[in-house]
């Protein structure tokens, strides 16, 4: 089957909320030797972005949004295993978390997969993680970069709180910080004093590697 067809089937499996098809397409992509990173970022992620647009326009409702994101997770699980297996190691360590009050973790998951694929060790704390926990784990694991994801305008202030607490505790110079998530911008990163902002997972990888150098 052609790459374009597989990517289109990946998109459609998310749009149609079909978990069986999504897992089947992910497995077929791997069997045909396609790059799992490309299948994730250009196939399935494109599907969830389209779902997001439909939700934003009121053409799709919350239960469908929840199902689509569960399908996305199942497909990601299949591809992430393959990405991890092929990753080289030891370019540095990054801790990543979705901030407190925010359950959105699909985009973070994609960032994690791509960053790992580039040989950066990743400690993923999951979602709804309070700032003190982020800092405690960053210190304990002696990471180089702390990345935070916020998808809600109401949770973005947690990213500022992280900068403020790091400064207050005299830890700011010990880590590089990165922010991401749909409502974030370079302007936001500059305003709160984060070291980098990335619009998508590919840019997150480029910026993380630059910070480690
Ligand atoms: C899927 C989804 C959900 C799922 C989340 C499932 C999950 N496990 O993640 C569910 C259904 C649970 C959900 C719930 C809610 N959601 Co919602 N959701 C979305 C949706 C459609 C897609 C988000 C997504 O996964 N995008 C795809 C990924 C690939 O993109 P991404 O997250 O932006 O990530 C990329 C980049 O941002 C970047 N990136 C991401 N993180 C990081 C981190 C770092 C360090 C870096 C460098 C880069 C980076 O790289 C990623 C990969 O390329 C968006 C719409 C949208 N357009 O964003 C709404 C959206 C974010 N949700 C919204 C809302 C309002 C909610 C709810 C409040 C709804 C409700 N009434 O209950 C709840 C919030 C619950 C909570 N407390 O968090 C609003 C937010 C509005 C706002 N201005 O704040 C949006 C924008 C929808 C809308 N148009 O109204 N949601």
Q: How many β strands by DSSP?
A: 5
Small-molecule binders here are:
cobalamin
Q: Helix and strand succession?
A: HHHHEHEHEHEHEH
Number of structural domains? 2
Secondary structure topology:
Layout: H1 3-15, H2 19-31, H3 36-56, H4 62-86, E1 92-98, H5 106-117, E2 120-124, H6 131-140, E3 145-149, H7 157-168, E4 176-180, H8 186-192, E5 196-197, H9 201-212
Parallel strand pairs: 1-2, 1-3, 3-4, 4-5
Give a description of the structure:
There is one protein chain. The chain is of the alpha/beta class. It folds into two domains: 3-86, Methyltransferase, Methionine Synthase (B12-binding Domains), Chain A, domain 1; 92-212, Cobalamin-binding domain (Rossmann fold). 59% of the residues lie in helices and 11% in strands. The protein contains nine helices and five strands; from the N terminus they run H-H-H-H-E-H-E-H-E-H-E-H-E-H. Strands 2-1-3-4-5 form a five-stranded parallel sheet, with helices on both faces. The radius of gyration is 17 Å and the shape is globular. The termini are far apart. The structure holds cobalamin (B12). Residues 45, 48-49, 51-52, 55-56, 65-66, 69, 96, 101-108, 110-111, 147-149, 151-153, 178-183, 198, 200-201, 204 line the site of cobalamin (B12).
């Amino acid at each position: 089957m052609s790459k374009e067809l597989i990517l289109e089937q990946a998109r459609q499996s998310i749009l149609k909320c079909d978990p069986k098809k999504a897992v089947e397409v992910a497995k077929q992509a791997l069997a045909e030797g396609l790059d799992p990173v490309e299948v994730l970022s250009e196939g399935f992620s494109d599907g969830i972005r389209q779902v997001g647009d439909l939700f934003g326009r009121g053409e799709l409702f919350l239960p469908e949004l929840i199902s689509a994101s569960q399908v996305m997770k199942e497909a990601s699980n299949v591809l992430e295993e393959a990405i991890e297996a092929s990753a080289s190691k030891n370019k540095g360590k990054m801790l990543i978390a979705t901030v407190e009050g925010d359950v959105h973790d699909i985009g973070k998951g994609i960032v994690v997969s791509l960053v790992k694929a580039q040989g950066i060790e990743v400690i993923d704390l999951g979602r709804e993680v309070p700032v003190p926990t982020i800092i405690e784990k960053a210190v304990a694991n002696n990471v180089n970069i702390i990345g935070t994801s916020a998808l809600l305008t109401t949770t973005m202030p947690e990213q500022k709180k992280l900068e403020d607490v790091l400064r207050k505790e005299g830890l700011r110079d010990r880590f590089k910080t990165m922010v991401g998530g749909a409502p974030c911008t370079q302007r936001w990163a500059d305003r709160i004093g984060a070291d980098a902002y990335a619009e998508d997972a590919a840019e997150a990888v480029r910026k993380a590697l630059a910070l480690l150098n």
